[in-house]
Amino acid sequence: MTESIAPCVELSTRQRYIVLIAAFLGWMFAGLEISLFVLISRPALVSLLTSVRDGAAVAPAEALVTQWFAWYQAAFLFGAAIGGWGFGWLGDSRGRTRTLALSVLCYSLLTGCCYFARTPTDMLVLRFFACLGVGGAWPATVALVAEAWPNASRPLLAGLLGAAANVGFVLLGAIGYVCEITPASWRWVLLVGTAPALVGLWCLVGVPESARWLAQRANSAARRVSPIPELFRPPLRRRTLIGILLGAIPVVGTAANANWIVPWTDQMSEQQARQMSAQSDDAAPVVTRKKPDARSKALTQMTRSGGAVFGSLLGGLLATRFGRRATYFGISLLTLGTSLFVFGWLTPLHPWFQVFSFALGFSGVIYFGWLPLYLPELFPTRVRATGTGISFNTGRVVAAFVVLGTGGLMSIFGGDYSKIGVWTASIYAVGMLVILLAPNTDGARLED
């Protein structure tokens, strides 16, 4: 479908770099917000769920902690999905830059409100609303960068944008490694999550709007388009459904598979401490020689997310070199094997665990450098933000139900993270099948 649009006045080089920096920071801090609850959830839940009996503190059962962790993950996924739809529509109707600003202000200010939560339910509700902004940041950043830079730069920039969230993961992991996060001290991390509000304010006053979007909106016919109905009728309906499936695989993989390695590490660290205490008069067995360290979960987050930074940087470049579909198939196969090895053969106390946490982050997040390149190629400018937002974030709804299901299975497995990790790794095999249905966009230019 083609239509005439008003002439597009391209951004200057300086303006393009401003857009790139704003998009990178907006998605980087969204990554920080995503990882924040993965990192603090277990100590926070131990603190909030600990009861007092006969004057003594009684820690909650591990199965209860993991169930609440699953609910927090589901709150993030549902919130981000709704935010992706809502802010995606806002990006096409009111502008990419304004939408990015509002999404950043949403996730940062509401995360700060979590500081005052006194029950797990308080935290759950606030987490849901904060994640509306996390979901909204994706379509705004992808559309802004895709439209601001020429096609020759897009593979590298797609990888850079994919790496942004993982830089946020590493940043928060480093902060948590330097300043320990324990059941007695975890609320301060929520104040760190408030800092990105400054980026949101800057986007409102100092970041230029997409020239392509402005030109599209200048066309009277374009103003009458309602993006969501158009995406779900021919000729775009098939592309939208394929985009949703492709976006769902890595989102489910991250939320229902890879994210478990952080609380798993925390659990193993506590078990190690109890074993060492119980055997203090005997020679420590091999599995208890390492000194317990409350920073171990932060180290796991840093190693996994460090691998993810490099993996996501390669996503767009690999897709350009080997083709979109072949790259996605290869990512799925590699991540399936890595996840099965980590959860099926290792434990967080194994000397190779951090190495393969890096490998799992590397392979499982190449997707997120691939998606910013491929998804914008599926949709024309008038519905690009909405289309990419729906494609990426609707997968979060699927992931939320999977996570809730795995939370129930954790009770059956008695809090055994390794068993649930092996079970959920199968999502990557599904990705190997879905990509066979996807359209080939190799060599395609963005459609106006």
Question: How do the helices and strands line up, and which of them pair or pack?
Answer:
Layout: H1 13-49, E1 51-53, E2 56-58, H2 62-94, H3 96-113, H4 120-148, H5 154-178, H6 188-192, H7 197-206, H8 211-217, H9 220-223, H10 227-231, H11 237-256, H12 261-278, H13 296-322, H14 324-345, H15 353-364, H16 367-378, H17 384-412, H18 417-424, H19 427-434
Antiparallel strand pairs: 1-2
Helix pairs in contact: 1-2, 1-3, 1-4, 1-5, 1-7, 2-3, 2-4, 2-17, 3-4, 3-7, 4-5, 4-17, 5-13, 5-16, 11-16, 11-17, 11-19, 12-13, 13-14, 13-15, 13-16, 14-15, 14-18, 14-19, 16-17
CA radius of gyration is 22 Å
Q: Which regions are unreliable across 5 or more consecutive residues at pLDDT < 50?
A: 1-7, 284-292
Instruction: Name the overall outline.
Output: globular
Portion in helices: over 70%
Structurally, the number of domains stands at: 1
CATH fold-type name: Growth Hormone, Chain: A
Subunit organisation of the chains? single chain
Taken in chain order, the helices and strands follow as HEEHHHHHHHHHHHHHHHHHH
Largest sheet: 2 strands, antiparallel
Mean pLDDT, all residues: 85
In percent, how much strand structure appears in the residues? under 5%
Let me know the CATH homologous superfamily.
MFS general substrate transporter like domains
Instruction: Give the class from helix and strand content and strand pairing.
Output: mainly alpha
Can you count the beta strands?
A: 2
Task: List the strand order in the largest sheet.
Answer: 1-2
